[in-house]
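Thread: flavin-adenine dinucleotide complex, take 2
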Amino acid sequence: MDFDLTEQEKMYRDSLRDFLNKEFAPIVDKRDAQGPLTRKEAVDVMHKFRKLGIGLDPDSIRTLMGSPMIFGIMTEEVGRVWPSLLPLFGMGAIPAMFAPLASEDFKQKVMPRLESGDFIGCFAETESEAGCDTSKLKTTAKPDGDYYVVNGAKTWISNATVADTAFVGVTNTETGSQTFLLMEKEMSPWETNELHKIGWNASPTGEMFFEGCRVPKENEMGTMLANALKSGADMKEVLPVSDGFIKLLTTMEPFTAMMTLPRAGMCLAAVGIGQAALDASLTYARERVQFGRPIGKFQLVQQMLYEMAVAIETSRLLGYRALDAIVKGHPDARKFSCMAKVYAGEACVKATYNAIQIHGGMGLSTEMPLERYYRDARLMTIPDGTSEIMKLVTGYTLLGKGFSAYK
Ligand SMILES: Cc1cc2nc3c(=O)[nH]c(=O)nc-3n(C[C@H](O)[C@H](O)[C@H](O)COP(=O)(O)OP(=O)(O)OC[C@H]3O[C@@H](n4cnc5c(N)ncnc54)[C@H](O)[C@@H]3O)c2cc1C
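Output below.
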């Protein structure tokens, strides 16, 4: 068993770490406190990452989404410095993957933006009455000639207020079945409203309102895939995903397979937040002197550091274990990604709590990043599957068919 990253993965991690330390670490605390990024700022972020070869354009996305380990390293490193940036890539990747498969007029509009790095996308499924239970979406798509007409509203959507492209969950009024439509804001205009939250403050999150939005039928998920495969291409040419991921897509429900990667990514983003809190605590414990000695010499402080270190390392192992299962297309990918997301989300809440404790009053001060780490950590147990739902999925995956708590 080899616990080391490959040389190539280490190089990727190190250059990304240097880039983040140079470009974002100096501005993160001030900028995050000012709230959601504007669209221009979000596009500037994409352009900066692009210089490093990280992006959503058809070439770069193959590296990011086609290699689960690279995706995991990216989420851990960005999580360590500025988790608010992650939805630009994680959620933006879903419409970006499908854009090359959409209708001609959609492609003409969106592909140049995607190529140049000016593209911001979102994945819109959650509704006010469809949170954990998304089995009955009220956003509808009514067939009308070559189009669907979409009506409804979404909530808690990452990038909603800055996105030009959206992958939107809908119920087909004719068949009653649920699917996703790829939409572009000028072609099918929608309204948005910003929502404010405890952490990830620079990440725009919002509501989306669709009223009579016309979307070409060719932009329905199943139709896009079927049209692309018709030309004889295989799934790997059509979607920028790994062989293992394709195995998951063909052996489990597509949505279940799709969620394995973001859940493993959320685990590693939590590892990044926890690691930043631990690094700051180690520095402070060495430097802060009370009772004539560094506080790091006190056993109770060392116990907190131990608890943080073991929780972060366990989370990291679970996260990379989940990624390894995704790489291999192993059925355990579902169980491990759920376990990893719950464990790491809750572990980083405890780790950032301890980090504030070790910093005493300074830990609560907005002059230090500890309070941001704590707020950013608190968010980790809800999006992409709440801890409760992740535990239930793990439960019935362990127990087998017939043991779903809510089906
Ligand atoms: C910052 C942020 C970003 C997000 N980004 C996106 C996005 O980009 N796209 C998108 O579509 N959605 C997004 N979401 C929505 C997110 O996926 C939902 O918030 C999440 O699924 C939970 O839904 P809810 O908030 O309605 O909670 P509810 O479903 O109302 O749940 C409330 C509580 O009840 C518990 N619960 C519910 N059902 C059960 C059960 N069967 N057994 C035990 N406990 C249960 C939950 O675990 C939770 O503790 C985001 C949310 C946040 C906060």
